[in-house]
Amino acid sequence: MKEFAYVRAGSVEEATTAYASHPGARYLAGGTNLVDLMKLGVETPAALVDVTRLPLDAVEELPDGGLRIGATVRNSDLAAHPLVRDRYPALSQAVLAGASGQLRNAATTGGNLLQRTRCPYFQDLSKPCNKREPGSGCGARDGVHRDHAVLGHSAHCIATHPSDMAVALAALDGRVELSGPDGARSVAAADFHRLPGDRPERDTEIRPGELITGVVLPAATAGLPSAYRKARDRASYAFALASVAVVLRLRDGVTDRVAIAFGALAHRPWRARRAEEALTGAAPTAAAFEHAVDLELSAARPLRDNGYKVPLARNLAVDVLSRLTDTALGRRAS
Amino acid sequence: MTGTTGAPAERREGREKVGGTARYAAEFPLPGRVQAWPVPAAVARGRVTGIDTAAALAVPGVLDVLTHENAPRLAEPDDATLAVLQDPRVPHRGWFVALVVAETLEAARAGAAAVRVGYEAGKHDVVLTPSHPGLYVPEEASAGQPGVREQGDPDGAFENSAVRVDVAYRVPPLHNHPMEPHASTARWEDGRLLVHTSSQGAHTVRAVLAGLFGLPEERIVVTAEHVGGGFGSKGTPRPDVVLAAMAARHTGRPVTVAFPRRYLPAVVGHRAPTLHRLRLGADADGRLSCLTHEVTTHTSRVKEFVEHAAVPARIMYAAPHRRTLHRVAALDVPSPSWMRAPGEAPGMYALESAVDELAGELGMDPIELRVRNEPDVEPDSGRPFSSRHLAECLREGARRFGWDRRDPRPRSRRDGPLLLGTGVAAATYPVLVGPSTAEARALSDGTFAVRTDATDIGTGARTVLAQVAADALEVPLERVRIEVGSTELPSAPLAGGSSGTASWGWAVHEACARLTHRLAGHTGPLPLQGIDAHADTTGTADAESAYARHAFGAHFAEVAVDTASGEVRVARLLGVYAAGRILNARTARSQFVGGMTMGLGMALTEGSTMDAAFGDFVESDLASYHVPVHADVAEIEAHWLDEDDSRLNPMGSKGIGEIGIVGTAAAIGNAVHHATGVRFRELPLTPDRVLAGLPARGTS
Q1: What is the ipTM for the molecules in this complex?
Q2: Option in A118, A290, A312 nearest B691 (CB)
Q3: Phi, psi of B567 (to 5 degrees)
Q4: Do A231 and B687 touch (CB under 8 A)?
Q5: pTM here?
Q6: Is A235 on the interface with B (CB under 8 A)?
């Protein structure tokens, strides 16, 4: 087997230093994706820097009313946290919609963001994949791609990002906090993942050596009505065919603040800015929702076998928007 | 009978399995045992032109690399999928071209990754179509069934029928995926071959190994003590046991070959995709005049295996004019093989869906339509049924399910975005039984030892055989000890075709009855070695029956179809069976419910895609090949009728391992039609398909 070094870090600085001193290193948290990929030979790290013991396992309330979720907070704990459930229900729902109970017990907040695509060509070393091996080609484009992207894909890559959690974070205006050789910084969750372009091997905006230390949920979206809806092939333990996270606030009979993020449609959570723009200030009617979502999805470029994702995503978004509106207006959900 | 059979006795090996002390084939750490990892072909058709093993041999811990150039020669097997590493031909992607043997699993895997294989690749053909030029009508489909049967003038009768249904259905490739992937541990000792393998029948494995390695059977011992499921994919030996024996001979060390999950779809068999065309013609009262079921499927270049999906139409319904036909094309695909209810599962999905369509055309209740077409004798053979209580199953199911409250109009129930519907389908599975031997011994401590090479693949075979023995011996269950799972025991057939309990139980019953008789004539204390009796049911169990013998059942399903997402969820699933005497209420229920759950998977979640460019099944792990999870199975119930059939075996039992899957998919599909008003004719009913079939949700 390919041998690798194992380093258990006790602090963020120790972790980033260890990473820097081991070329080809990977950070190891829950390992629910990385270890699988190592078994498949997709990931061949020279060293694993174990970050599970870092003091990043707390959910803390910030003075302004936001929340900081430590990078090593387990998905189960995140979903069950009373403040998360209470103030950011879409996030709790999204995390619970992912994986299985056992996996959520192991998987961490930071690791969830950094999981790789589930594209079968990416996982199979005997087939071409530009993400795994730049320049080798894309097996999925003319192959089996029912689960692949309809938005923002490129000639080089049609993969989607599999995270449910990241979709909710994008809608809730979360920020990803990073620490690296050049210090600490943060990136909007909606911009953290990239579109593939001609560099599909890069999933995120993370820089070499940077470590995710946490995710901040802003006070601005705390307590706003939000919800997550996911369509999948079976009732649990399946990746999304399409999903949507919605944050919606009505005021004086119009949409005052709205955020919509789609999952499983693109290489990153797809923040639906055009739809949001169309809805802001408008009356929250089904027709307005449909019009706005259609406007957003008019950018979709489905492939041979994944055209269903467009109406699916549309229906999910319209339904969640309608449901949140009904709840806000005290109407019984239809 | 003292009444031990039928009782819900607990699994005898349950504690070992739950506690982790039950050992499976890969878990025998014999001294010096090494591991082997196979190298799958990376082309779909062609030949190996060269194998560079230098890098693999340089991996620390790697002992040797077997290829077609240096592997032990095998005699030509009946099952050509076992002719591994014998020649450079690559008949499909995933076919093994090398085997790396190493001190550790990790080294073997790394070695396998380092083997460089050169190929001369040919143009491959892996996509089955209804008009594929390679299609032909085979003489026989699987299970020895005739490839084609015809009575009367089905085409003419169809043209002249008052009510007609002419429909096509599709079932995708399906995979057995037992919990325990295929694994074997082999060693050679003084010219004897000793094997632990995960198989549905140790004696079957032994016979095949004897042929391949040119050994007398007495010099081979095969054990299959605990087996983590097989669903047909372990019915006959698979390459793991052959590779393990070859590598052990080649290296002189005990060798374990445990296939990774991802390799299974290519090398252990799959249920081949089936394309169905059905034509049903009836009079206005719903009496069938003609029934045509034509099945198109694929096989591999290695061997002909024809999923006999048109066969149930020879059994189910009375119709004077009939044609049941199979067509098959040999493609550059992995070899298909047995999977739970081969033939019946896909065949009854299509037939029972078409019958539901006919009921719709007639405006008739689908249960009444089925009852109206109940045959007096088996339609194809003309033989009388030993027992047939399909109508009773349908009626009892209807009563339990609340069928009479159903509004027959499609799309008549709604709950917000959910469309609700119910459906029904019939099930059938043949009664199969084979000759077996068994031994029973009365011991001086008052216990009884019963021995036979039955295999417990998770069904509870040990438990039910002990019950059969206790009844025949007229002693309490706890005084019976049972030993199964080794060729050191009296020979017995494999656990397959729902025939195990009938076959083994017959021999156990006979041995125990003889022993009872001998004990009755014995006076005084037992001798030290006890008193024993043997049975061999050859000539009786396999005697031709004058009767058509089948189990029957009825499945009912209630579904909710989400009009936003196209997701289908099953709220209720009910099965009612007429399967002779049920010998253990607990393990029988488990088998019925397990079969129904697998049928739910077939209906909604399971299926793989053949990658036309690469020639393999894309969904090859359990994250992408979706078997149902707990959340998919809401309310599920299995019941059975007390069926008394004296024309079966001494226990009066029919097989129950497979009928649960048969008809479940059709019941769910029919419920989806009832819910939505749309007839979906391709499985599985995943959200993409369902959403595409539902009327688009327009702007409101």
Answers
A1: 0.97
A2: A312
A3: -75, 135
A4: yes
A5: 0.98
A6: yes
